[in-house]
Amino acid sequence: MPDKQPGGSTITGRLFRSGRREHVEAEGWRAVRAAGLTAIVDLRNADEIGPRVGDPAASDLSCVIVSNRPTEDQTHPAFESELLPMLDHPGSYAKNVELFPHLIADVFATIADARGAVLIHCSAGRDRTGLVAAVHPVWHDPFRPEPELSDRIAERRTALITWLTNMDAAALLLTIGLTPEQLNRLSRLLIVAGSS
User: Fold this and answer.
1) What is the CA angle 191-155-76, rounded to 5?
2) For 73-106, what is each residue's pLDDT tens digit?
3) pLDDT tens digits for 110-149?
4) Domains in the chain, ordered, with CATH?
């Protein structure tokens, strides 16, 4: 049986999140390596990975383990009809876990097996990364007027809080395939002792 999972605060410096790693400049990589980064979990699909025009020169990441662990299978028959319309929204999180529990389990197993700090990222660092981090940050969208953006944020916040309130994270992770040992390692890696 896993240790009791009381929830709590995430230990500072153990889990980082970002958008595409190809967009991170050398100074950013130096900072996270100095903070103990040992692993990167790339949540993108294989066809999304790679540099784009305007990206900085590639940094040497040879001392970091990079694992590609997509959270979705875009070839799945239900992806386009059931998940695609809800992308960019925390309302998609439950459906994503329902459709692809094995993929989500692979992500958390990889984090649990890391030797130190872990960076999780997708393309923008908000949707797939938000699912894994269970946090959907407020970001500035220059294409939307502030009242519309505020409404979008409020609605997404409500959807996220509803999902988090109704979800038992430890039970979910065990149900989708994590072992009790992996769950314990996640807890020790990420949760501040004595926090609730």
Assistant:
1) 75
2) 999 999 999 888 888 788 888 899 899 999 999 9
3) 999 998 889 999 998 878 888 887 634 333 334 445 566 5
4) 15-190 (3.90.190)
Given a cut of 70, whether residue 4 has pLDDT beyond it is no
**CB-based contacts of 60-67 (< 8 A; 24+ apart in sequence):** 61/21, 61/29, 63/33, 64/33, 64/37, 64/38, 64/39, 64/40, 65/38, 65/39, 65/40, 65/114, 66/21, 66/39, 66/40, 66/42, 67/39, 67/40, 67/41, 67/42, 67/110
Gap between the Cα atoms of 29 and 70, Å rounded: 22
Amino acid, single-letter form, for residue 49: I
Separation of alpha carbons 47 and 131, rounded Å: 20
